[in-house]
Structure formats: structure tokens, C-alpha cells
Design goal:
The protein has about 400 residues and is an alpha/beta fold. The protein has three domains: about 80 residues, Arc Repressor Mutant, subunit A (Orthogonal Bundle); about 130 residues, ATPase, nucleotide binding domain (Nucleotidyltransferase, domain 5, 2-Layer Sandwich); about 160 residues, ATPase, nucleotide binding domain (Nucleotidyltransferase, domain 5), CATH 3.30.420. The strands form three sheets. A five-stranded mixed beta sheet has the order 6-5-4-7-8. Strands 11-10-9-12-13 form a five-stranded mixed beta sheet, sandwiched between helices. A three-stranded antiparallel beta sheet has the order 1-3-2. A hairpin with a 3-residue loop joins β4 and β5. The longest helix has 25 residues. It is globular, with a radius of gyration of 21 Å. Bound molecules: zinc ion. The site of zinc ion has 5 residues, from loops. Zinc ion (ZN) binds next to loops.
């Protein structure tokens, strides 16, 4: 039998889950909360009653958000009580910085992005990012002091305990603690996570994975990573680096990877690798944009390379799916925009995963495109404020 302490911890954890769902999604009905949290109707009902008693949650007449399912009389919605101040989301990509300032309900008030050579210049990028946050806060009629948290996306695995970027991935960031550095510049708590985890959070709260519980989100762009949602929550693993599917070995004597190993998945399917494979067959310099356009136009060479890339990724995802039995695989990142790659990926899952595992899952492109990381960073900031 569980001890009283264990039950209290469980209850507190469930309360945080409800608060973070309301923080991420805005007003929800109790039925929505049951669906999104995976908790029982009785548990949700009693948690909501407690939170209303504690003044943290109120019932609302807000009917602005459409009812997400079912028919019949419109449900009573609950929302976080009187959220004030705001949050910011920061997406540091390999070649860009995107910043959004949002209210506590997650509505983006101002957003901007800049093209920057991020990997080579850690300190300068952090200075510029802090300046963007200040400017956007001002544009949202908030002072930086009114920001309660900043979510920060880093395009590399972050060690949860040391908060350092794992060595070898971003040369200009060696020894830097990105979250701490941005926090020092802004004077606001900064919570950092990687792009695949935040993409997963974004699709879970605001995109194609809403209401789903067991989801693999793949980010396929200049690298390959996965964000894993289990039981409706992001699974970060013991040290925060779960989902590093890009470094699964697919070729014993393949190319040397930026992580130091050989034959990693992302050495075969990264955006740069695909462009390098295709370039000799084209007269003009190929870009990712052009490659995606050629896919839609039906270009045979482009489709061949994208199908092969999808199959290579799908082979690794099939093993992960066999272990996790997800209901949904979301393909995000630049290459998630290629229907041919998504189809190749689906084909390899059907071929290599157990038939029941393959039949239980859908494979879909992400809904949030280039904004997924910044939307996820905002959701992370809101969740951390709600849980604090
Ligand atoms: Zn690697």
C-alpha cells in the first residue's frame, strides 16, 4: 500500500499536470482535461474542485474557444485565475533566432526572427537574443520585469544536470550554459530544452498531436532528433537527452558524425547531406526551399533521394515504435514539409515494425512548421510558471 507521502506527491504531480495543461491550452472543459491528461474523470473533477478552492483556477463563461469534441450542451470551461504578466519563447536554431512574447494564456503578442550564424558565435547570439526579448516585450507593452519565465530552445542535446550543450555539436558554445547566460542578461528565469522536445510540446499543446498521449515527434532538418510524449507528458529521460535518434548507428563504416561516432542516422539524412547528394545532378545551386518545391513538382531524382531518406529514418523509428507503441509519429522540421519523405518513412515503419505496432500508429507532418520550436518554448515557459 502506498504511503501517505507517496499519495501526496502523486496528487501534487497531478495538480501540476492539470495546471500546466490549462496554462498551455487556455480554457478547457473537465472532459478535455480528462482526455488530455489521461487521468480519470473522478480524479480530474476532484483536482479541479481543489484548485478552485485554492483560487488557482476559476470557472469561466469564455466561449471564444470552440468546443473540441462531442455535441450536446456546451461544457463549462475552467481556466487559470487572473494570469498577469507574460512569458517569452526563444528559438535558437543553427542559422536563426526567433523570439515570441506571449501572455500567460499563450497568446503570442509579438514575434520576430533574425538570420544569424548561431553555431559559431555563442556570446554574441545570446546578447542579440536578449535585445530581441527586450524589444518584443516593449512592443507588447510589457517590461522585461513583467516576464515571468523564458523558454529557450537549443538545437543540440542539453545535459539536464549540468545544463551544458553536449560537446562537439555547436563549436561557438563550448563551455557556455545557454539558459544561465540568457537568465543573467535578462534577470528572468530561463528554462532551456532542445528543439525536438519543444517541437513535441508545441504539437501536443497547439498542433496536430492535441489530445494524444503517446507520440513520437521527429525533427528532421540540419540534424535529426526525437521528442517523446508518453502518457501525455514529455519524456526527457534520466539526464534530459532522451530521443537522440539522430545518433542511432545505421552504417558501421559510414561518415564521421559531429558527435564523434561513425554512421549516425543524421550523417545520412540531414538537409546538408541530401543537398550534397543531389547537387551534382543540377546546374543551379540547390537550396532546401528549391528541393521541397522540386518534390512537389515530381522531380524524379529529388523524390528518389527523399524516399530513401524517409526509409532510412523510418527504419530507426520502427525500432523505437516497437519499444514504445506510439499512436502518432509527427514529422516536423524543414523536411517534414516533404510528402515524399513522410511517405518513405511510413513505408519503412510498415515494413520493419511489428504489424500491430504499425497498424496502431499514424504518420503525419507537423502542423506548426518553422514556428514549432518558439511555440514549444512559450508552452514550456508557461508550464514552468504554472508549476512554480
Ligand atoms: Zn552522431
Amino acid at each position: 500500500m502506498a504511503s501517505t507521502g507517496a499519495l501526496e506527491r502523486l496528487r501534487a504531480g497531478n495538480q501540476r499536470a492539470v495546471l500546466s495543461l490549462l496554462a498551455g491550452e487556455g480554457p478547457m472543459s473537465r472532459a478535455d482535461l480528462v482526455r488530455a491528461s489521461g487521468l480519470s474523470r473522478t480524479t480530474v473533477s476532484s483536482l479541479v474542485a481543489e484548485l478552485i478552492g485554492a483560487g488557482q483556477v476559476i470557472e469561466t463563461d469564455d466561449r471564444a474557444r470552440p468546443h473540441k469534441g462531442g455535441s450536446g450542451r456546451p461544457p463549462v470551461l475552467v481556466r487559470l485565475s487572473a494570469p498577469t504578466g507574460g512569458v517569452a519563447g526563444v528559438d535558437v536554431g543553427h542559422g536563426h533566432v526567433r523570439v515570441a512574447v506571449a501572455d500567460r494564456a499563450g497568446t503570442v503578442l509579438a514575434e520576430d526572427h533574425a538570420l544569424v550564424d548561431v553555431d559559431a558565435h555563442g556570446t554574441e547570439v545570446l546578447d542579440r537574443t536578449a535585445a530581441m526579448v527586450r524589444a518584443l516585450a516593449a512592443r507588447s507593452e510589457l517590461s522585461v520585469e513583467e516576464l515571468q519565465a523564458v523558454g529557450m530552445c537549443i538545437p543540440a542535446p542539453l545535459d539536464r544536470r549540468s545544463a551544458r550543450i553536449r560537446t562537439g555539436i555547436m563549436p561557438g558554445w563550448q563551455g557556455l550554459l545557454p539558459g544561465e547566460e540568457l537568465e543573467r542578461r535578462l534577470g528572468v528565469p530561463v528554462h532551456a530544452d532542445n528543439d525536438a522536445n519543444l517541437g513535441a510540446l508545441a504539437e501536443l499543446h497547439h498542433g496536430i498531436a492535441r489530445g494524444r498521449h503517446d507520440v513520437i515527434y521527429l525533427k528532421v532538418a540540419s540534424g535529426v532528433g526525437a521528442g517523446i510524449i508518453l502518457g501525455g507528458r514529455l519524456h526527457r529521460g534520466a539526464s534530459g537527452i532522451a530521443g537522440e535518434i539522430g545518433h542511432v548507428q545505421v552504417g558501421e563504416d559510414g561518415h564521421v558524425c559531429r558527435c564523434g561516432n561513425r554512421g549516425c542516422l543524421e550523417t545520412m539524412v540531414s538537409a546538408a547531406r541530401l543537398l550534397e547528394l543531389l547537387q551534382p545532378a543540377y546546374d543551379t545551386p540547390l537550396t532546401m526551399e528549391r528541393l521541397l518545391a522540386l518534390d512537389v513538382e515530381g522531380d524524379a531524382g529529388v523524390r528518389r533521394v527523399l524516399t530513401d531518406a524517409g526509409r532510412t529514418i523510418g527504419r530507426a523509428v520502427a525500432d523505437l515504435a516497437n519499444s514504445l507503441n506510439p499512436e502518432l509519429v509527427v514529422v516536423g522540421g524543414t523536411l517534414g514539409g516533404s510528402p515524399t519523405l513522410v511517405e518513405g518513412l511510413r513505408g519503412a515503419i510498415d515494413r520493419y515494425a511489428q504489424p500491430d505496432t504499425a497498424a496502431a500508429l499514424d504518420v503525419v507532418p507537423g502542423a506548426l512548421g518553422v514556428r514549432s520550436a518558439v511555440v514549444g518554448a512559450v508552452a514550456l515557459a508557461i508550464a514552468r510558471v504554472a508549476a512554480s
